[in-house]
Amino acid sequence: MKKITQTLLILIAFVSCKTAQEEAKTTIAPVTSAMMETAVIYEANIRQYSPEGTFDAFTKDIPQLKKLGVKVIWLMPIFPISETNRKAKGDLMVHDIKDAEERKKYLGSYYAVSDFTKINPEFGTIEDFRELVKAAHENGIYIILDWVPNHTGWDHKWLKTNPEFYTKNDQGAVIYPEGTDWTDVADLNYDNKDLHTAMIADLKYWITEEGVDGYRCDVAGSVPTTFWEKAIPQLRAEKALFMLAEAWEPELLKEGLFDMAYAWEGHAIMNAIAKEEKGVKEWSTYMEKMSTEYEEDDILMNFITNHDENSWNGTINERMKGAAEMLLALSYVSPGMPLIYSGQEYDLNHRLKFFEKDSIPKEKGNMWSLLEKLGKLKTSNFAMHGGKNAANYKNIATANENVLVFTREKEGQLITFVANFSGKEQKINNAIKGEYVNYMIDEKVAFTDETISLRPWEYMILTH
Fold first, then answer.
1. pTM for this model (two decimals)
2. Are 440 and 461 in contact (CB under 8 A)?
3. Element (H, E) at 10
4. Spatial CB neighbours of 369, under 8 Å, sequence gap ≥ 6
Protein backbone atom coordinates (compact mmCIF):
# COMPACT_ATOMS: atom_id res chain seq x y z
CA MET A 1 0.00 0.00 0.00
CA LYS A 2 2.84 2.38 0.91
CA LYS A 3 4.48 1.77 -2.49
CA ILE A 4 1.19 2.45 -4.29
CA THR A 5 0.77 5.75 -2.39
CA GLN A 6 4.32 6.83 -3.24
CA THR A 7 3.73 5.95 -6.88
CA LEU A 8 0.52 8.01 -6.94
CA LEU A 9 2.26 10.99 -5.36
CA ILE A 10 5.05 10.82 -7.91
CA LEU A 11 2.48 10.56 -10.72
CA ILE A 12 0.53 13.55 -9.37
CA ALA A 13 3.73 15.60 -9.08
CA PHE A 14 4.70 14.65 -12.62
CA VAL A 15 1.28 15.60 -14.02
CA SER A 16 1.31 18.91 -12.09
CA CYS A 17 4.76 19.71 -13.44
CA LYS A 18 3.68 18.97 -17.02
CA THR A 19 0.53 21.05 -16.53
CA ALA A 20 2.59 24.05 -15.40
CA GLN A 21 4.86 23.65 -18.43
CA GLU A 22 1.89 23.40 -20.80
CA GLU A 23 0.32 26.55 -19.30
CA ALA A 24 3.52 28.48 -19.95
CA LYS A 25 3.42 27.35 -23.57
CA THR A 26 -0.23 28.06 -24.31
CA THR A 27 -1.17 31.32 -22.55
CA ILE A 28 0.02 33.55 -25.40
CA ALA A 29 -0.74 33.80 -29.12
CA PRO A 30 1.98 32.70 -31.55
CA VAL A 31 4.67 35.21 -32.54
CA THR A 32 3.57 37.23 -35.58
CA SER A 33 4.98 39.91 -37.85
CA ALA A 34 2.23 42.25 -36.61
CA MET A 35 3.61 41.99 -33.07
CA MET A 36 7.07 43.03 -34.28
CA GLU A 37 5.72 46.26 -35.81
CA THR A 38 4.87 47.75 -32.41
CA ALA A 39 7.19 45.86 -30.05
CA VAL A 40 9.61 47.25 -27.51
CA ILE A 41 12.26 44.74 -26.42
CA TYR A 42 13.58 44.60 -22.84
CA GLU A 43 16.97 43.12 -21.91
CA ALA A 44 16.70 41.54 -18.46
CA ASN A 45 19.88 41.22 -16.42
CA ILE A 46 18.47 38.90 -13.75
CA ARG A 47 21.59 39.00 -11.55
CA GLN A 48 21.57 42.78 -11.25
CA TYR A 49 17.85 43.53 -11.60
CA SER A 50 17.19 43.21 -7.86
CA PRO A 51 19.06 42.85 -4.56
CA GLU A 52 18.02 39.18 -4.60
CA GLY A 53 19.15 38.64 -8.20
CA THR A 54 16.49 35.98 -8.77
CA PHE A 55 13.82 34.99 -11.27
CA ASP A 56 11.13 35.55 -8.62
CA ALA A 57 12.20 39.14 -7.95
CA PHE A 58 12.03 39.91 -11.67
CA THR A 59 8.76 38.05 -12.31
CA LYS A 60 6.73 40.25 -9.98
CA ASP A 61 7.67 43.35 -12.02
CA ILE A 62 6.66 41.97 -15.42
CA PRO A 63 3.23 43.74 -15.33
CA GLN A 64 5.14 47.02 -14.84
CA LEU A 65 7.18 46.40 -18.00
CA LYS A 66 3.98 45.92 -19.95
CA LYS A 67 3.18 49.57 -19.18
CA LEU A 68 6.32 50.55 -21.12
CA GLY A 69 5.08 48.80 -24.26
CA VAL A 70 7.40 45.81 -23.76
CA LYS A 71 6.35 42.85 -25.90
CA VAL A 72 9.59 40.86 -25.89
CA ILE A 73 11.81 40.12 -22.88
CA TRP A 74 15.34 38.98 -23.70
CA LEU A 75 16.81 37.17 -20.70
CA MET A 76 20.57 37.38 -20.48
CA PRO A 77 22.01 33.81 -20.19
CA ILE A 78 20.22 31.83 -17.50
CA PHE A 79 22.51 28.79 -17.64
CA PRO A 80 25.09 27.52 -15.11
CA ILE A 81 28.46 29.29 -15.30
CA SER A 82 31.73 27.37 -15.48
CA GLU A 83 33.95 27.31 -12.44
CA THR A 84 37.11 26.49 -14.40
CA ASN A 85 38.94 29.59 -15.66
CA ARG A 86 36.22 31.81 -14.20
CA LYS A 87 37.01 35.50 -14.69
CA ALA A 88 37.28 37.91 -11.77
CA LYS A 89 38.28 41.28 -13.22
CA GLY A 90 40.58 42.49 -15.96
CA ASP A 91 43.04 39.70 -16.73
CA LEU A 92 42.63 38.23 -13.25
CA MET A 93 41.03 34.80 -12.92
CA VAL A 94 39.27 33.58 -9.79
CA HIS A 95 41.88 30.86 -9.29
CA ASP A 96 44.55 33.58 -9.11
CA ILE A 97 42.97 35.01 -5.94
CA LYS A 98 44.39 33.50 -2.77
CA ASP A 99 41.77 34.77 -0.30
CA ALA A 100 38.85 32.31 -0.21
CA GLU A 101 36.29 34.93 0.84
CA GLU A 102 37.43 37.29 -1.90
CA ARG A 103 37.02 34.52 -4.48
CA LYS A 104 33.36 34.01 -3.54
CA LYS A 105 32.24 37.42 -4.76
CA TYR A 106 33.24 36.74 -8.37
CA LEU A 107 30.30 34.99 -10.02
CA GLY A 108 31.73 34.75 -13.52
CA SER A 109 30.44 35.69 -16.96
CA TYR A 110 26.96 34.64 -18.02
CA TYR A 111 28.53 33.83 -21.39
CA ALA A 112 30.77 31.04 -20.04
CA VAL A 113 28.07 28.37 -20.13
CA SER A 114 28.70 24.96 -18.55
CA ASP A 115 25.38 23.36 -19.56
CA PHE A 116 22.87 24.62 -22.15
CA THR A 117 19.98 22.64 -20.67
CA LYS A 118 20.18 23.63 -17.00
CA ILE A 119 19.32 26.69 -14.87
CA ASN A 120 21.90 28.80 -13.04
CA PRO A 121 21.12 28.12 -9.35
CA GLU A 122 22.14 31.72 -8.63
CA PHE A 123 18.77 32.76 -10.16
CA GLY A 124 16.51 30.07 -8.69
CA THR A 125 15.02 26.80 -9.88
CA ILE A 126 13.47 25.55 -13.10
CA GLU A 127 10.07 25.98 -11.42
CA ASP A 128 10.91 29.65 -10.77
CA PHE A 129 11.85 30.04 -14.42
CA ARG A 130 8.55 28.50 -15.49
CA GLU A 131 6.66 30.97 -13.33
CA LEU A 132 8.54 33.80 -15.06
CA VAL A 133 7.59 32.49 -18.51
CA LYS A 134 3.98 32.01 -17.40
CA ALA A 135 3.74 35.55 -15.99
CA ALA A 136 5.21 37.02 -19.17
CA HIS A 137 2.80 35.08 -21.38
CA GLU A 138 -0.17 36.08 -19.25
CA ASN A 139 0.84 39.71 -19.84
CA GLY A 140 1.15 39.24 -23.60
CA ILE A 141 4.96 39.30 -23.50
CA TYR A 142 7.23 36.83 -25.30
CA ILE A 143 10.38 35.36 -23.71
CA ILE A 144 13.60 34.86 -25.66
CA LEU A 145 16.77 33.36 -24.21
CA ASP A 146 20.30 34.65 -24.72
CA TRP A 147 22.06 31.77 -26.47
CA VAL A 148 25.86 31.43 -26.68
CA PRO A 149 26.61 29.28 -29.76
CA ASN A 150 30.17 30.42 -30.42
CA HIS A 151 31.83 28.91 -27.34
CA THR A 152 31.28 27.14 -24.02
CA GLY A 153 32.74 27.42 -20.55
CA TRP A 154 35.65 25.14 -19.69
CA ASP A 155 33.41 22.91 -17.53
CA HIS A 156 31.07 21.92 -20.35
CA LYS A 157 30.73 18.15 -20.71
CA TRP A 158 31.54 18.32 -24.43
CA LEU A 159 35.19 19.02 -23.58
CA LYS A 160 35.33 15.46 -22.21
CA THR A 161 32.75 13.64 -24.31
CA ASN A 162 33.28 15.43 -27.63
CA PRO A 163 36.61 17.29 -27.73
CA GLU A 164 36.31 17.23 -31.54
CA PHE A 165 33.62 19.92 -31.15
CA TYR A 166 36.32 22.46 -30.25
CA THR A 167 38.95 24.51 -32.05
CA LYS A 168 42.51 23.37 -31.30
CA ASN A 169 45.98 24.78 -31.81
CA ASP A 170 48.88 23.06 -33.57
CA GLN A 171 49.67 21.15 -30.38
CA GLY A 172 46.13 19.77 -30.20
CA ALA A 173 45.04 21.88 -27.22
CA VAL A 174 41.59 23.49 -27.13
CA ILE A 175 41.83 27.29 -27.41
CA TYR A 176 39.69 30.28 -26.56
CA PRO A 177 38.27 32.37 -29.48
CA GLU A 178 41.10 33.90 -31.48
CA GLY A 179 41.38 37.68 -31.52
CA THR A 180 39.61 38.04 -28.16
CA ASP A 181 40.48 38.14 -24.46
CA TRP A 182 37.70 35.61 -23.69
CA THR A 183 40.02 33.28 -21.83
CA ASP A 184 37.13 31.94 -19.73
CA VAL A 185 35.58 30.12 -22.72
CA ALA A 186 36.54 27.40 -25.21
CA ASP A 187 36.00 28.05 -28.92
CA LEU A 188 33.59 25.75 -30.78
CA ASN A 189 34.49 24.42 -34.23
CA TYR A 190 31.53 24.41 -36.62
CA ASP A 191 33.43 22.41 -39.22
CA ASN A 192 32.23 19.47 -37.15
CA LYS A 193 28.70 18.60 -38.31
CA ASP A 194 27.99 16.52 -35.19
CA LEU A 195 28.32 19.78 -33.22
CA HIS A 196 25.49 21.18 -35.37
CA THR A 197 23.24 18.29 -34.34
CA ALA A 198 24.06 18.63 -30.64
CA MET A 199 23.61 22.41 -30.60
CA ILE A 200 20.27 22.22 -32.42
CA ALA A 201 19.04 19.61 -29.95
CA ASP A 202 19.84 21.91 -27.02
CA LEU A 203 18.15 24.84 -28.77
CA LYS A 204 15.02 22.76 -29.37
CA TYR A 205 14.86 21.73 -25.71
CA TRP A 206 13.83 25.18 -24.42
CA ILE A 207 11.26 25.61 -27.17
CA THR A 208 9.57 22.22 -26.88
CA GLU A 209 9.96 21.61 -23.14
CA GLU A 210 9.80 25.09 -21.60
CA GLY A 211 7.79 27.11 -24.10
CA VAL A 212 10.27 29.90 -24.83
CA ASP A 213 9.54 32.06 -27.86
CA GLY A 214 12.94 32.44 -29.49
CA TYR A 215 16.55 33.42 -28.98
CA ARG A 216 18.98 36.30 -28.95
CA CYS A 217 22.12 34.66 -30.34
CA ASP A 218 25.41 35.97 -29.01
CA VAL A 219 28.07 36.95 -31.62
CA ALA A 220 25.88 35.27 -34.24
CA GLY A 221 28.08 36.54 -37.05
CA SER A 222 31.02 34.50 -35.74
CA VAL A 223 29.07 31.28 -36.29
CA PRO A 224 28.90 30.09 -39.93
CA THR A 225 25.73 31.17 -41.73
CA THR A 226 25.41 27.60 -42.97
CA PHE A 227 24.70 26.54 -39.38
CA TRP A 228 21.89 29.08 -39.02
CA GLU A 229 20.46 27.99 -42.38
CA LYS A 230 20.23 24.49 -40.96
CA ALA A 231 19.22 25.29 -37.38
CA ILE A 232 16.63 28.07 -37.59
CA PRO A 233 14.21 26.34 -39.99
CA GLN A 234 14.27 23.29 -37.70
CA LEU A 235 13.47 25.50 -34.70
CA ARG A 236 10.70 27.33 -36.54
CA ALA A 237 9.18 23.96 -37.45
CA GLU A 238 8.44 23.53 -33.72
CA LYS A 239 6.61 26.89 -33.27
CA ALA A 240 6.55 30.50 -34.43
CA LEU A 241 9.64 32.26 -33.01
CA PHE A 242 11.30 35.64 -32.66
CA MET A 243 15.01 35.46 -33.49
CA LEU A 244 17.53 38.22 -32.73
CA ALA A 245 21.14 38.10 -33.95
CA GLU A 246 23.89 39.98 -32.16
CA ALA A 247 25.29 40.85 -35.56
CA TRP A 248 24.98 43.34 -38.39
CA GLU A 249 25.42 41.07 -41.43
CA PRO A 250 22.42 41.38 -43.81
CA GLU A 251 22.75 37.74 -44.91
CA LEU A 252 21.67 36.64 -41.42
CA LEU A 253 18.29 38.30 -42.04
CA LYS A 254 17.50 36.40 -45.21
CA GLU A 255 14.11 34.68 -45.51
CA GLY A 256 13.58 32.16 -42.73
CA LEU A 257 16.65 33.15 -40.69
CA PHE A 258 16.83 35.91 -38.06
CA ASP A 259 14.09 38.50 -37.70
CA MET A 260 16.28 41.25 -36.27
CA ALA A 261 19.93 42.30 -36.05
CA TYR A 262 21.75 45.05 -34.13
CA ALA A 263 21.87 48.65 -35.35
CA TRP A 264 25.54 48.83 -34.29
CA GLU A 265 26.43 51.53 -36.79
CA GLY A 266 23.44 53.66 -35.81
CA HIS A 267 24.40 53.34 -32.16
CA ALA A 268 27.99 54.40 -32.87
CA ILE A 269 26.71 57.44 -34.77
CA MET A 270 24.45 58.34 -31.82
CA ASN A 271 27.44 58.28 -29.48
CA ALA A 272 29.35 60.50 -31.89
CA ILE A 273 26.39 62.91 -32.24
CA ALA A 274 26.36 63.33 -28.45
CA LYS A 275 30.03 64.34 -28.63
CA GLU A 276 29.21 66.66 -31.57
CA GLU A 277 31.70 64.72 -33.68
CA LYS A 278 28.98 63.73 -36.16
CA GLY A 279 25.64 65.24 -37.08
CA VAL A 280 22.68 65.28 -39.43
CA LYS A 281 24.76 64.53 -42.52
CA GLU A 282 26.16 61.31 -41.07
CA TRP A 283 22.77 60.22 -39.70
CA SER A 284 21.05 60.80 -43.06
CA THR A 285 23.83 58.94 -44.89
CA TYR A 286 23.42 56.06 -42.46
CA MET A 287 19.66 55.88 -43.01
CA GLU A 288 20.14 55.86 -46.77
CA LYS A 289 22.75 53.14 -46.45
CA MET A 290 20.43 50.99 -44.32
CA SER A 291 17.68 51.26 -46.94
CA THR A 292 20.01 49.86 -49.61
CA GLU A 293 22.03 47.29 -47.63
CA TYR A 294 19.03 45.67 -45.96
CA GLU A 295 15.81 44.31 -47.43
CA GLU A 296 12.47 46.00 -46.70
CA ASP A 297 11.39 43.36 -44.20
CA ASP A 298 14.67 43.37 -42.22
CA ILE A 299 14.48 44.76 -38.68
CA LEU A 300 17.29 46.46 -36.76
CA MET A 301 17.34 46.91 -32.98
CA ASN A 302 17.90 50.55 -31.95
CA PHE A 303 19.48 51.25 -28.56
CA ILE A 304 21.25 53.87 -26.49
CA THR A 305 22.52 51.30 -23.98
CA ASN A 306 22.79 47.56 -23.38
CA HIS A 307 24.82 45.28 -21.09
CA ASP A 308 28.06 45.71 -23.06
CA GLU A 309 27.72 49.47 -23.44
CA ASN A 310 26.82 50.05 -19.80
CA SER A 311 29.49 47.85 -18.22
CA TRP A 312 32.39 48.50 -20.57
CA ASN A 313 31.85 51.80 -22.41
CA GLY A 314 29.91 53.91 -19.94
CA THR A 315 26.48 54.89 -18.71
CA ILE A 316 24.03 56.81 -20.87
CA ASN A 317 24.97 59.99 -19.03
CA GLU A 318 28.70 59.38 -19.46
CA ARG A 319 28.41 58.82 -23.20
CA MET A 320 25.50 61.06 -24.18
CA LYS A 321 25.11 63.72 -21.48
CA GLY A 322 22.60 66.41 -22.57
CA ALA A 323 21.79 64.62 -25.82
CA ALA A 324 20.50 61.48 -24.07
CA GLU A 325 16.76 62.22 -24.14
CA MET A 326 16.80 63.35 -27.75
CA LEU A 327 18.73 60.24 -28.81
CA LEU A 328 16.37 58.01 -26.84
CA ALA A 329 13.45 59.52 -28.78
CA LEU A 330 15.38 59.02 -32.02
CA SER A 331 15.83 55.32 -31.19
CA TYR A 332 12.04 55.01 -30.92
CA VAL A 333 10.90 57.04 -33.91
CA SER A 334 13.46 55.59 -36.34
CA PRO A 335 12.59 52.39 -38.25
CA GLY A 336 13.35 49.33 -36.12
CA MET A 337 12.64 48.05 -32.63
CA PRO A 338 13.78 50.02 -29.55
CA LEU A 339 15.60 48.34 -26.67
CA ILE A 340 15.35 49.03 -22.93
CA TYR A 341 18.15 47.62 -20.77
CA SER A 342 17.62 46.68 -17.11
CA GLY A 343 17.90 49.82 -14.97
CA GLN A 344 17.49 52.22 -17.87
CA GLU A 345 13.85 52.67 -16.90
CA TYR A 346 14.97 53.66 -13.38
CA ASP A 347 17.58 56.26 -14.45
CA LEU A 348 20.52 53.88 -13.91
CA ASN A 349 23.61 56.06 -13.63
CA HIS A 350 26.42 53.68 -12.79
CA ARG A 351 28.27 50.96 -14.66
CA LEU A 352 26.92 47.62 -13.52
CA LYS A 353 29.58 45.15 -12.46
CA PHE A 354 29.81 42.28 -14.89
CA PHE A 355 31.41 39.46 -12.88
CA GLU A 356 30.12 40.46 -9.43
CA LYS A 357 26.76 41.07 -7.77
CA ASP A 358 25.45 44.58 -8.23
CA SER A 359 21.97 46.11 -8.37
CA ILE A 360 19.94 48.69 -10.23
CA PRO A 361 17.93 51.54 -8.66
CA LYS A 362 14.19 50.87 -8.40
CA GLU A 363 12.62 54.33 -8.12
CA LYS A 364 10.64 55.72 -11.04
CA GLY A 365 11.96 59.05 -12.24
CA ASN A 366 12.29 60.98 -15.47
CA MET A 367 13.26 58.01 -17.63
CA TRP A 368 10.24 55.93 -16.65
CA SER A 369 7.80 58.63 -17.74
CA LEU A 370 9.70 59.12 -21.01
CA LEU A 371 9.71 55.40 -21.81
CA GLU A 372 6.04 55.07 -20.90
CA LYS A 373 5.13 57.96 -23.20
CA LEU A 374 7.29 56.69 -26.07
CA GLY A 375 6.01 53.15 -25.57
CA LYS A 376 2.42 54.28 -25.80
CA LEU A 377 3.10 56.03 -29.11
CA LYS A 378 5.07 53.06 -30.42
CA THR A 379 2.21 50.66 -29.75
CA SER A 380 -0.65 52.88 -30.91
CA ASN A 381 0.46 54.82 -33.98
CA PHE A 382 0.92 53.15 -37.40
CA ALA A 383 3.57 55.74 -38.27
CA MET A 384 5.79 54.21 -35.56
CA HIS A 385 5.72 50.73 -37.09
CA GLY A 386 9.25 49.39 -37.33
CA GLY A 387 8.98 45.71 -38.23
CA LYS A 388 8.73 43.75 -41.46
CA ASN A 389 6.21 46.25 -42.86
CA ALA A 390 7.68 49.42 -41.38
CA ALA A 391 6.26 52.90 -41.84
CA ASN A 392 7.82 55.01 -44.57
CA TYR A 393 10.80 57.20 -43.59
CA LYS A 394 11.25 60.49 -45.46
CA ASN A 395 13.99 63.00 -44.77
CA ILE A 396 13.09 66.70 -44.99
CA ALA A 397 16.08 68.82 -45.96
CA THR A 398 16.92 71.93 -43.96
CA ALA A 399 19.61 74.52 -44.54
CA ASN A 400 20.95 73.90 -41.02
CA GLU A 401 23.41 70.99 -40.78
CA ASN A 402 22.63 70.65 -37.06
CA VAL A 403 18.87 70.06 -37.32
CA LEU A 404 17.30 66.77 -38.38
CA VAL A 405 13.73 66.68 -39.71
CA PHE A 406 12.00 63.57 -41.02
CA THR A 407 8.52 62.07 -41.30
CA ARG A 408 7.21 58.54 -40.77
CA GLU A 409 3.93 57.60 -42.45
CA LYS A 410 1.74 54.51 -42.74
CA GLU A 411 -1.95 53.88 -43.39
CA GLY A 412 -2.86 57.55 -43.18
CA GLN A 413 -1.03 58.23 -39.91
CA LEU A 414 1.93 60.61 -39.88
CA ILE A 415 4.51 61.80 -37.38
CA THR A 416 7.21 64.43 -37.86
CA PHE A 417 10.45 64.36 -35.88
CA VAL A 418 12.46 67.54 -35.40
CA ALA A 419 15.73 67.49 -33.45
CA ASN A 420 18.63 69.79 -32.68
CA PHE A 421 21.79 67.68 -32.94
CA SER A 422 23.92 70.21 -31.09
CA GLY A 423 24.51 71.75 -27.70
CA LYS A 424 23.76 75.24 -29.04
CA GLU A 425 20.51 76.96 -30.02
CA GLN A 426 19.67 76.48 -33.68
CA LYS A 427 17.25 78.03 -36.18
CA ILE A 428 15.82 76.56 -39.37
CA ASN A 429 13.64 77.82 -42.15
CA ASN A 430 10.13 76.58 -41.48
CA ALA A 431 9.55 73.57 -43.72
CA ILE A 432 6.73 72.14 -41.59
CA LYS A 433 4.18 74.96 -41.47
CA GLY A 434 0.91 73.84 -39.96
CA GLU A 435 -0.79 72.72 -36.76
CA TYR A 436 0.33 69.72 -34.75
CA VAL A 437 0.36 68.16 -31.30
CA ASN A 438 3.78 68.20 -29.66
CA TYR A 439 3.33 64.66 -28.39
CA MET A 440 5.85 64.51 -25.54
CA ILE A 441 4.34 67.52 -23.77
CA ASP A 442 0.79 66.95 -25.05
CA GLU A 443 0.47 70.49 -26.33
CA LYS A 444 -1.03 71.87 -29.54
CA VAL A 445 1.46 73.89 -31.60
CA ALA A 446 1.12 75.98 -34.75
CA PHE A 447 4.18 76.74 -36.89
CA THR A 448 3.44 79.89 -38.87
CA ASP A 449 6.67 81.90 -38.65
CA GLU A 450 9.32 81.71 -41.35
CA THR A 451 11.85 80.24 -38.91
CA ILE A 452 11.79 77.77 -36.02
CA SER A 453 14.14 78.03 -33.04
CA LEU A 454 15.36 74.99 -31.11
CA ARG A 455 17.10 74.94 -27.75
CA PRO A 456 20.26 72.83 -27.29
CA TRP A 457 19.40 69.15 -27.95
CA GLU A 458 15.67 70.01 -28.16
CA TYR A 459 13.45 67.61 -30.07
CA MET A 460 9.78 67.38 -30.99
CA ILE A 461 7.62 64.44 -32.00
CA LEU A 462 4.76 66.05 -33.86
CA THR A 463 1.54 64.11 -34.41
CA HIS A 464 -1.15 65.11 -36.88
1. 0.94
2. yes
3. helix 2-26
4. none
